[in-house]
Specification:
Layout lengths: L1 H27 L4 H16 L10 H4 L2 H9 L4 H11 L12 H4 L13 E6 L2 E10 L3 E5 L7 E4 L5 E10 L4 E6 L20 E4 L8 E12 L4 E2 L2 E3 L6 E4 L4 H5 L6 E5 L2 E2 L3 H9 L6 E8 L2 E8 L1 E2 L6 H9 L11 E7 L11 E3 L5 E10 L2 E6 H23 L13
Antiparallel strand pairs: 1-2, 1-4, 2-3, 3-6, 4-5, 5-6, 7-8, 8-17, 9-16, 10-11, 12-13, 12-14, 14-15, 17-20, 18-19, 19-20
Length: 413
């Protein structure tokens, strides 16, 4: 009895420790498939190593074979496993699955060069994206909508350099960063051939093995922009809320029936149409600040907009898509993207995606669904990056040019 109690206490302690650690990671926003994958091999043996009793059942246990079998078969840490899977979207990877280490090891040499051109983007010290070095002078291309606050880049050699945004292309959700320093960096090598549906791809990180691998599933195509969706019914005239869709952006923001919306991001709205126009200026995933009057009180709330195209089915669609993990906030409104089935986390977008020759066929720009990730193709990026670099050079030259005040340095002056 004492041994059984001690074993139960040890299991409970392990359970509490793991749950506490995972909660902290979730709260800090640092749980990624990569980070959890490092922990997973350590967790799995603990689960699988839980010993089953080899002792013969007592007379009382034998009289209740069903109960005894259930107690013997139950793994005390199954609850932990279920809790981690439910809260992180991570699943234990078997050796038969594509992202198992033994499978990814086949791509070790494929990504060897490209991972030198891959950086990890930190925004206010949180990991928000990958980045791709596109110039020896230290220019980095990444996903613009994830950037905020102080930006740093972690290089493949683990050094961390500060960076600043120099050019943004919102229509592509791309930003060009400039790393500090004057050293030469390893720039990515672009593929010049059109990618073929069915080809294998690899997404490099900083490890010797790729972060994930996948297959091109759809040829490059346009993804129409989606309109932001608040999820409210409105009065025929005033921007007064008459209905709240359960689970919608408005519901999650705390809006209530009879609330009167006065402003959106500081812009005054006088009627129903003005409110709708302001909301539809923003894509799904954008945050909007609403100034609201409720009775005699005025206050502000922030709502994260949903997707107008899916409307009333938004919760169901999001649930289905998120079965494979989180989705990128900006995942629509691209002129040309190729689709592949690599399973990425949103903060693993922005870096290169590589073919079997080790060349970049594009840059991962969004995790769009359970089996869909988008990449902007190299044939779009090559001229676009050249223009962005030229724009940066032109702006830098103007900034460095000395200012000559009007009316000075004139002959005889």
């Amino acid at each position: 009895m004492f041994l059984r109690t001690t074993k139960t206490r040890e299991s409970g302690a392990r359970q509490a420790t793991l749950m506490g650690a995972t909660r902290a990671w979730l709260r800090q926003g640092v749980v990624t498939a990569g980070a959890m994958a490092l922990l997973w091999p350590a967790i799995t043996p603990v689960w699988s190593a839980e010993p089953k009793s080899a002792a013969k059942p007592s007379t009382s246990a034998a009289s209740k074979p069903g109960k005894a079998a259930a107690e013997t078969a139950r793994n005390p840490l199954d609850d932990v496993k279920q809790w981690v899977e439910r809260n992180t979207g991570l699943r234990e990877v078997s050796d038969r699955q594509r992202d198992h280490e033994s499978i990814r090891a086949a791509f070790r040499d494929v990504i060897k060069s490209a991972r030198q051109s891959t950086v990890r983007i930190l925004a206010d010290d949180l990991s928000v994206a990958f980045g791709t070095i596109v110039s020896e002078e230290g220019l980095v291309l990444t996903k613009a909508s994830e950037l905020r606050g102080q930006i740093k880049c972690v290089l493949s050699d683990k050094r961390t350099l500060t960076a600043r945004i120099v050019v943004v292309r919102p229509e592509h959700d791309l930003a060009l960063l400039r790393l500090e320093g004057t050293e030469k960096f390893s720039a990515i090598e672009w593929c010049v051939e059109a990618p073929t549906v069915g080809n294998f791809l690899a997404t490099p990180g900083h490890g010797e093995l790729p972060t994930a691998i996948g297959v091109i599933s759809v040829a490059p195509r346009r993804i129409a922009a989606a309109f932001g969706y608040l999820g409210v019914g409105l009065d025929q005239a005033r921007p007064r809320v008459t209905l709240i869709q359960p689970g919608s952006s408005a519901d999650k923001a705390g809006l209530q029936v009879d609330d009167l919306v006065l402003r959106v991001n500081g812009e005054k709205v006088d009627d129903r149409e003005m409110l709708q126009q302001q909301i539809r200026k923003h894509p799904p995933g954008d945050k909007v600040e609403l100034q609201v009057r409720r009775g005699e009180h005025e206050f502000k709330v922030v709502a994260v907009l949903g997707d107008l195209q899916t409307g009333l089915q938004q919760d169901r669609v999001d649930f289905q898509n998120r079965l494979g993990g989180g989705l990128s906030s900006r995942r629509a409104g691209f002129d040309s993207v190729l689709q592949h089935d690599t399973v990425l986390n949103p903060n693993e977008c922005g870096g290169p995606v590589i073919d079997l020759d080790g060349k970049a066929i594009g840059i991962n720009i969004a995790r769009a669904g359970r089996v869909a990730s988008y990449a902007i193709p190299a044939d779009v990026l090559r001229p676009l990056v050249a223009r962005m670099i030229a724009d940066h050079a032109r702006e830098s030259n103007l900034a460095d040019r000395p200012v000559v005040e009007s009316g000075t340095n004139k002959a005889g002056g």
